[in-house]
Amino acid sequence: MNATPLLSGRGLTKDYPMGAERVHALRGVDVDVYPGDFLALRGPSGSGKTTLINLLGLLDVPDHGTLRLAGRDTATLSENERADTRRDRFGFVFQSFNLIPVLTAAENVAYPMLLKPQTPHDLQARAGELLAAVGLAGKEHVRPDLLSGGQRQRVAIARALANHPVIIFADEPTASLDSRTADTILDLMQQLNKERGVAFVLSTHDPRVVERAARVIALHDGAIEPGAT
Ligand code: ADP
Ligand code: MG
To answer: What is the number of the ligand 1 atom nearest to the C-alpha of 203?
Structure first.
């Protein structure tokens, strides 16, 4: 891809303390995310996928290395600017869906939109549109515990789309789903990627996810394995 990257990480490292030792979760990773990308981060458990997603998604900061967002060094962003970026430009999808159990599907989807002034009518209309876009028209008033795993992940994807993100980060989005449901969720993410141009960064150890990715970065012990992009 020859476009300017949305995100560009160079030499990203991250250690975590573990007792008196330090775990080298990332050991100097270079990664670019382009507009409209569909990038898979592959690797066994413990290889650093979640750590990398957290850095790229501005949920955490690297110990060393630089991360640029549309050319700007993210180290210059204040905590508020980082939070605004996450809210306005990114969407997040997790393995365990992370829905709020006491809210309906539509309320879960509308939740990230509450921080911006909008009428209840507009909020409801947009939540309804997004639920329809993920195949859940008619489920607006249902609470998560009455939805299947696949339906819950669809609600989470609709919520991730709420503020028109440029990138959705999905950390093992199919790991809690059976294989047939996982396929339909991947179909949906690919469709949203094509139709809306939203970039996806997915972490996975599921070969079916890797097969569908436009680009793959393979991590092993916190470093990129050569040859797999
Ligand atoms: P993956 O998502 O590929 O399973 P992670 O990024 O979660 O990998 O973890 C990379 C390494 O960092 C692992 O050795 C893990 O045990 C360690 N690690 C991750 N998060 C923490 C944490 N909060 N505290 C201590 N160690 C951590
Ligand atoms: Mg992980």
So the answer is: 2
Distance CA 218, CA 187 (A): 22
Q: What is the pLDDT of residues 170-228, one digit of tens each?
A: 999 999 999 999 999 999 999 999 999 999 999 998 888 888 898 999 999 999 998 65
Q: Judge if pTM exceeds 0.90.
A: yes
Handedness of CA 224, 226, 228, 229 (dihedral sign): positive
Atom of ligand 1 nearest to the CA of 172: 2
In sequence order, the β-bridge partners of residue 190 are none
45 lines ligand 1 (CB under 6 A): yes
Q: Which of 192, 205, 208 is nearest to 160 (CA)?
A: 192
- The pairing of beta strand 199-204 with beta strand 38-42: parallel
